[in-house]
Amino acid sequence: MIEHKFAEDRLAALYDVFFPPRRRDDFAFYLPLVMSARAVLDVGCGTGALLRLARDAGHTGRLCGLDPAGGMLNQARQWSNIEWIHGDLSSVNWDQEFDLVVMTGHAFQELVADDEIREALAAIHSALVAGGRFVFETRNPLVRAWEHWATEYTAEVIDATGALVRCEYQVEMPIEGGVVRSISTFTSDGWIHPEVSRGALRLLDAPAVSSFLSSAGLTIEEQFGTWTGHPLTDTSPEIITVARKG
Question: What is the pTM (predicted TM-score) of this model?
Answer without folding.
Answer: 0.95
